[in-house]
Design brief:
Two copies of one chain form a homodimer. Chain A folds into two domains: 158 residues, Alpha-Beta Complex (Aspartate Aminotransferase, domain 1), CATH 3.90.1150; 244 residues, Aspartate Aminotransferase, domain 2 (3-Layer(aba) Sandwich). Helix content of chain A is 42%, strand content 13%. By secondary structure, chain A is of the alpha/beta class. Chain A has 14 helices and 13 strands. In chain A, a hairpin with an 8-residue loop joins strand 10 and strand 11. In chain A, strands 2-9-8-7-6-3-4-5 form an eight-stranded mixed beta sheet, sandwiched between helices.
Chain lengths: 427, 427
């Protein structure tokens, strides 16, 4: 395909007329499509239904340690569920604590605790003049919403295909004691699908923070969410690496079953050092009587172990893979070589990120909307919703049907061409 | 029975020898009993088992409004569960929000939000020099643990059989802007089993707080937990009364199904004004993706409505009533008229409170422990664990079997006599 960069003004004009025609045709169809939501499809949710049979009125409701899951007690989770999540995270069960639905809630609460009570005896952040946070971009909008809500100043750190720019991370973290954390989605990152390289993980684990209470928020949200098997998504174990580096307390790792079992009824987990867990429990034991132990039991009995989870995740992959490939094939067919942007082919996770020419993302999303395709808002994957280049678009292929996705991806490609041509012709 | 107050020193001495003998006999039995835990018994938990069959792999997982409970979304709860909890609390469903397991968690989070973000635009409490809280005593130890953890200064307010001393509450709340809240368990209070009188509720609703962000934390933990039917536990509706009084935003009401369905897998709810709920949601929407909607559906489908809940609660009452009556009969038989303390006969809830002569509670609990009966620690129902009179003992009859309870109650009565006689003979 000829790149727009090599076209004459006349050629561009002609291409634009052509693209406008195609766009109008799509617009005329009056479609209503949505590629904005990183939600599992109903078909994927059906995969979790069997789990609901595992616990019924005939079940033995005792956990392995004899505790009655129906009653009060046991703050940090029943042993079999701790073991399950520990196996998935490749850590020791005593370094794991189980929570309720929504790992976001566990992250928010971690920040809230740090604000009010401080981290391991350090000054509560609410008593400080300024708290700052590193935000690899593009990233997960709801992470940024948490730090924004607490009034924490967010600093963008660019992502590459190896993870965050570690030169920048090292320099900032070691020089500024106001920097208290960094958001990381290290595997199949939201939204790019990047897996942090071994070097990135090692450099992360070897940080020398100026702040004693600096913590890496390692949101391993897509830890088992492979599209092409676990081998493609190999990620070094941050807990081990931090321990080796003499920084055992520098990381909290988060995981959940939201996109494994049921997004509306999952369990969340935190893995960290004993010191960090003890510090956390000092408050959590005051905060709650305990999280839902029956749902913990349901998950442990259904999945049994990490192998059971991985087997289950293959079924998710079988549903997701064709959707990803349809979108990626459409991008390849319609946009490769046009000089109208770039994208990474993810090996897992829930998103594809399309990077337009600078200044085109908002316009692409507007055009798509007017042709009946809702995309995630421009700027969403950035702190304060500000994409400095107005070029990043998050595509979420999981929820629509293949039929819907076919139209949506084609319309998207046309909108990219449209906006790019508009820009080039204005120049 | 002759009161100790009318006995001569010799009579007391003889009685003491007699009681010591009985005590030694019990001690010799080597029993291991526990009246400390306000937990449902296994028999009660069995009542909730049917609920676990309501949702299975064949279920329609859509809520009334068509939302798929298995997926993300819907922050404030599915309509049928909001309606269920609204019916129980006798409020409108739009004034209700549903949370996960543990209503304590919702209360803790409410205080945490107020600390960090402030209440309805007022100064965040963490920016204030001093925050104070009213604590009707005796009260629920975990309430006091929350306010203590946040460094909030707690002020004791004595309870009577009508509820908290409202003269004191009115004076303090109207004069001191540092007072931001009051803990209330208005029905079958923990631990006395007191139901707030209509006058108490009306005076509470008509408070004229010095602080705009003063809130009543109305923990209706035992809202349907009747021992002798709902009629005995009639409580005025605080939400209505606050609205009538022109104080619609002054109260948060909390409830949960912890001791209705399963303590280890229940749902919690908050009822409040739209303004308060909106203020809360501003943060909760950042905090979480959402609470467990499948468990909400399970509860709504199983109980259907408030009548369904009340019917279910009668089965709990049938199990609890004999336990309460056994303990109360033992107190009547062994202690009435002895001048060795007082107690209230509760009509619901989970506890009986025994009030010894001043300075005897710690000793009774020590004696009981040495005879094999674990009681809730002395001071537990008071802020900072300090019972100013060392006289209040919380008895929890729900968990032990009737056989265990028979021994435990008798041993308790002997210990009360023992400690009382010790005290009188020392005087």
């Amino acid at each position: 395909m000829q790149s727009y960069a090599t076209m004459s003004k006349e050629e561009l004009q002609q291409e634009f007329e052509n693209v406008k025609k195609i766009y109008k045709e799509y617009q005329g169809k009056g479609l209503k499509l949505d590629m904005s939501r990183g939600k599992p499809s109903p078909q994927q949710l059906d995969l979790g239904m069997e789990m609901l049979d595992v616990i019924n009125s005939n079940s033995d409701m005792k956990a392995e340690n004899g505790i009655d899951t129906r009653n009060y007690g046991l703050l940090d989770g029943i042993p079999e569920t701790k073991r399950l999540m520990a196996e998935i995270m490749e850590v020791s069960p005593e370094n794991v604590m189980i929570f309720g639905n929504s790992s976001l809630n566990t992250m928010f609460d971690m920040v809230a605790r740090s604000m009010i009570f401080g981290v391991c005896g350090e000054t509560p952040w609410c008593k400080l003049d300024k708290v700052k946070w590193l935000c690899p971009v593009p990233g997960y909008d709801r992470h940024f919403a948490v730090t924004e809500h607490f009034g924490i100043e967010m600093i963008n750190v660019p992502m590459s295909e190896d993870g965050p720019d570690m030169d920048m991370v090292e320099e900032l973290v070691s020089s500024d004691p106001a920097i208290k954390g960094i958001w990381c989605v290290p595997k199949y990152s939201n939204p790019q699908g990047v897996v942090y390289s071994d070097e990135t993980v090692r450099r992360m684990a070897n940080l020398k923070p100026a702040a004693k209470d600096f913590r890496i928020y390692w949101d391993n949200a897509y830890i088992v969410h492979h599209l092409y098997g676990a081998e493609q998504g190999k990620l070094l174990n941050i807990i081990d690496e931090c321990a080796k580096a003499g920084n055992p307390d520098m990381v909290y790792e988060f995981a959940s079953t939201s996109k494994v079992s049921l997004a509306g009824s999952g369990i969340a987990a935190i893995a960290s050092s004993t010191k960090n867990l003890d510090d956390m429990k000092r408050t959590v034991t005051i905060q709650t009587i305990g999280f839902d132990k029956v749902n913990m039991l349901r998950h442990a009995r259904y999945f049994q172990n990490a192998a059971g989870v991985l087997e289950h995740m293959e079924k998710h992959a079988d549903i997701l893979r064709p959707r990803f490939e349809l979108v990626l094939d459409t991008l390849d067919r319609e946009l490769a070589g046009r000089g109208a942007g770039e994208w990474i082919k993810p090996k897992g996770g829930y998103f594809i990120t399309y990077v337009t020419l600078d200044g085109c993302a908002t316009e692409v999303i507007r055009l798509a909307k007017e042709a009946g395709v809702v995309m995630t808002g421009a700027g969403a994957p950035f702190p304060y919703h500000k994409d400095p280049h107005d070029s990043t678009i998050r595509i979420a292929p999981s929820y629509p049907s293949l039929e819907e996705l076919k139209d949506a991806a084609e319309i998207f490609a046309v909108c990219v061409r449209y906006a790019t041509l508009e820009k080039l012709l204005q120049a």
